[in-house]
Amino acid sequence: MPSVEIYTQPGCPYCHRAVALLEHKGVAFTEINAPRGTPERETAIQRSGGQTTVPQIFIDGQGIGGCDDLFSLERRGALDPLLGQA
């Protein structure tokens, strides 16, 4: 099973949607609380190559982007292989 990490912020509807999709798929993931101005947010920005929005999602250390990117992968049928579910 791949390692999945998601940087989120309280009250973020996009974060909620992304987490809900991962939970629906039964994926184990680590949610990292990363409000603006925190070291966790800075880590997310660095790891994502400068993306400042949340969520930022990483599968096996590879940044896949945010909520829209996650749902795009799902629509194309490309998410399950990344999650080891194909």
Automatic annotation (TrEMBL):
Ranges of residues in domain Glutaredoxin: 4-64
Alphabetized CDD domains for the sequence: GRX_GRXb_1_3_like
Keywords linked to the UniProt accession: Cytoplasm, Disulfide bond, Electron transport, Redox-active center, Transport
Protein name: Glutaredoxin
PROSITE patterns: GLUTAREDOXIN_1 (PS00195), GLUTAREDOXIN_2 (PS51354)
Lineage of the species this protein comes from: Bacteria, Pseudomonadati, Pseudomonadota, Alphaproteobacteria, Acetobacterales
Gene3D superfamilies (alphabetical): Glutaredoxin (3.40.30.10)
Role of this protein: Has a glutathione-disulfide oxidoreductase activity in the presence of NADPH and glutathione reductase. Reduces low molecular weight disulfides and proteins.
Classification via Pfam families: Glutaredoxin
Family matches, as InterPro entries: GLR_AS (IPR011767), Glutaredoxin (IPR002109), Glutaredoxin_subgr (IPR014025), GRX_bact (IPR011900), Thioredoxin-like_sf (IPR036249)
Protein source organism: Acetobacter sacchari
Family listed: Belongs to the glutaredoxin family.
